[in-house]
Amino acid sequence: MNAATFRDCKAWISEGLSLSTSSNEACKLYDAILSQYVTWRNDESVGGIEGCIAAVKAADPDFVMGHVISTGLELVGTGSSVLRDERLANAVKTTLELAKSQELTPRERNHVKAVELFSRGALHKACEVWEDILVDHPTDMLALKFAHDGFFYLGEQIQMRDSVARVLPHWKPHMPFYSYIKGLYSFGLLETKFYDEALKVAKEALALTPQDGWSVHSVAHVHEMKAEVDKGLKFMASTEKDWMVCDMLACHNYWHWALYHIEKGEYEAALKIFDEQVSQRGVKSGAMLDTVDACSLLYRLELEGVSTKDRYRELLQVTEQHTEDHTLLFNDLHFLMVSLGSKDTSITQRLLESLQELAKEPADNHQLHIAQRVGLPMCQALQEFDQGNYSQVVQLLKPIRYRFVEIGGSDAQRDIFNQLLIHAAMKSGDKHHQRFARGMLIERDAVRPNSPLTDRLIQRAHALHV
Questions:
Q1: If exposure means fewest CB atoms within 10 Å of the residue's CB, which of 197, 287, 326, 342 is most exposed?
Q2: Repeat among the record's keywords (predicted)?
């Protein structure tokens, strides 16, 4: 990352994305933060994202877009909630007050509005505002990335794809982040099951920028969804040196690598990646993406019958402090896996009771709106499975299995809940549930042929129910 190439006031104006500040330094630091967000890496040569956020506020304390990007990134990180974090709530308030006190462009005003909506959990409305910005400013990368993340959290896969498709023709090869647009588009394509096209677009991006961790991640997903396990393993190993530099995404890419090993039944190799990469990186960063990956990996291994020893207890030290955040149901479900795995009933109760309480009066918060019909039954299913009440798990999950998507995340990430339902149905004493399990496995085999994991489950189902 070359600090000399960051855009000053004049450069932003020439791109039709003028920023309301007279400080060239503030404009360049805004660009530095945006660059690190897009490339998934803290660049120590410019002080990392945190260093740049402190510097942009020093360069111009009243620079509204400096506040928008710093507060927006914290909200999108989902690691803290305005309900429980007074500092974050004040940061949102400060951004709003600054916006009222000065002349801003309509684009900047919309950015402020979107951040405020996102802070209240009104994710749909926030995404609509970012999309409105993109109608008039299709090269506003901040609006595009925030919308992309918002749609991801909402499980709105088609919108995530089309949001990028609409702006693609406006991006030209000479523009900053041009290759990264392809990675964003590739991810939307694969989440809507256009796997071949997704692979093609991701490879185009990597030909331009081999260090694009998000495009690597897109390729990893394609191999995962098509059960091309050996291709996936080979690809991750051959590109590791390129994507390791993306410190904010490397943990997730290692998670994908471990998933291939689980698919093949190579549990020791998966545990090795957990211990050496996923766990260490997650504890160090405290980032939600890294944390939920660690939770998910342990739970998948446990479903496969692998002993995870004390690893849940170690992970609980990270997840416990987020027990009552309730920023995303997706996060809550993963934290619950850890409190159950650690046999910590008090933390489990705190998580469930605080979520039930908030869900009574959801206001604008989308996650709390869907908690009653999707989130809480999924939480309860995890608890019932832990207690060996398998038929109860099936009764909870079977009616909502096609609504799992509403909790957000990717198809690969949410697959853990499909696996949970299959395992519960197989273990249930109810013959109807056992037949349902076999049906789900046939369906799984049809969309992901040659999956070793599916083959193992089919064999297990036959052995259990002869």
A1: 197
A2: yes
Percentage of residues of the chain with pLDDT beyond 90: 97
If one counts the domains in the chain, the total is 1
Average pLDDT, the chain: 97
3-state secondary structure of 362: coil
CATH number of domain containing 216: 1.25.40
Report how far residue 426's alpha carbon sits from residue 418's, in angstroms, rounded to the nearest whole number: 12
Is residue 377 included in any domain, yes or no?
no
- Model confidence pLDDT, tens digit, residues 24-74: 999 999 999 999 999 999 999 999 999 999 999 999 999 999 999 999 999
Residue 236: CA count within 13 A, CB half-sphere: 25
Alpha carbon dihedral 336, 338, 344, 350, in 10-degree steps, equals -30
Instruction: Return the amino acid letter for 59.
Output: A
Domain boundaries, position 180 = 171-246
**Has residue 1 been placed in a domain?**
no
Among positive and negative, which fits the CA dihedral 145, 149, 154, 159?
positive
String of DSSP letters for 152-198: HHHT-HHHHHHHHHHHGGG--TTSTTHHHHHHHHHHHHHHTT-HHHH
In a domain, 192, yes or no: yes
Instruction: Work out the pLDDT band at 324, boundaries 50, 70, 90.
Output: very high
How large a percentage of the chain has pLDDT more than 70? 99
Cα distance between residue 293 and residue 279, in whole Å: 9
Question: Is there a domain that residue 400 lies in?
Answer: no
